[in-house]
Amino acid sequence: MTSDLLYTDVEDDLRSAVRGLLTDRCAPADVLAHIAAGAPHDGALWRTLAQEVGLAGLLVPEKLGGQGASAREAAVVLEELGGFVAPVPFLGSAVLATSALLAAGTEDADAVAARLAEGTGVAALAVPLPTAPDAAFPATVRADAEGVLTGRVTSVADGSSAGVLLVPALGPGGPELYEVRADAAGVEVSVPVPLDLTRPIADITFTGAAGRRLAGPGSAAGALRAALLTGAGLLASEQLGVAQWCLDETVRYLKERHQFGRVVGSFQALKHRLADLWLELVQARAAARNAADALARGDREAAVAVAVAQAFCAPVAVRAAEECIQLHGGIGMTWEHPAHLYLKRAKADEIALGTPGRHRAALATLVDLPPAG
């Protein structure tokens, strides 16, 4: 089946709504001021996005009170959020946590997803952010027969602002998924300083914390893998948004900057560098859109599309951010210019949900490539 990877009218309308709000509320100066204040997320911005625009329940089916959208629409949102390095928990709560709940397929999990769709709370999937979709089920948290959890998870995306934690744990019968209140007894949340200040992480320790089981050995492992696969595939669109902003901002700057009596952008060497970056960006867009479309259709080859997208888009975002800083000259190295926010997001995203090398190795396995050597 041939897919149309062009943006639909619905996706364009969604982009316009999100971009308009972010333009008003999430300008670079606003983001810099927010992280300087030390807050984990822009709570006011997230409430508007979650409740008024409906992003909290974007992937949640309409029967559960959500928008009933697909991964394609979520990818468009992440493009825009990446383009503004918006400090909101969309990836952690509305994508990773929500995808795990929906894939669990139990009434209890659906009820939690319905609550999240209201946009009044934030959830976090309690796995280390670098966890790849093909990773083994985590064994750092254990659950006893009564659902009491003990263990520790590090580098949980958006965990510092989450009220609900979705915790994969090894129970007496195997992999399980639990709901734990972040403010419950026996839960300790510490917040290390992350590389990317616009996406806080948390280290979470469970010492006899009471949990409610949402999925058992028959579905927990599959639900976690589905969430990580969805997250990795959609992260490529965020990386695309980061790269697009870096290219656009660099082109704008080089058209205005003068050196030796000429516009800097007229130098042929710089034109070549930007042309090369533009070509990589076009390819990255195709890879990211293909991954989102495969996830939206439930394609059996979705894992291949995700591996390709992550292996390609992550380095493109980093290169675009590096070029942005270098071609801005001295101003690009300052705190006041937002370029450093994009480099930090690109570098942090490069190791999130699997490194490019990990995804290339996964791709080789998926398509039966023989090992090198």
What's the structural blueprint in terms of helices and strands?
Elements: H1 9-25, H2 28-36, H3 43-52, H4 71-83, H5 90-104, H6 107-117, E1 123-125, E2 141-143, E3 148-157, E4 164-171, E5 174-181, E6 187-190, E7 201-210, E8 212-215, H7 220-256, E9 258-259, E10 262-263, H8 268-297, H9 302-327, H10 339-351, H11 356-366
Parallel strand pairs: 1-4
Antiparallel strand pairs: 2-3, 3-7, 4-5, 5-8, 6-7, 9-10
Count the strands? Answer: 10
**Overall 3D shape:** globular
Q: Span from first to last CA?
A: 36 Å
Counting DSSP H or I runs of 4 or more residues, the number of helices is 11
Helix-strand pattern? HHHHHHEEEEEEEEHEEHHHH
Rg calc? 21 Å
- Whole-number mean pLDDT: 93
Q: What class, by secondary structure content?
A: alpha+beta
What percent of residues adopt helix (DSSP H or I)? 40-55%
Could you name the ranges where pLDDT drops below 50 across 5 or more consecutive residues?
Answer: none
Which strands sit side by side, in order, in the main sheet? 1-4-5-8
Largest beta-sheet characterization: 4 strands, mixed
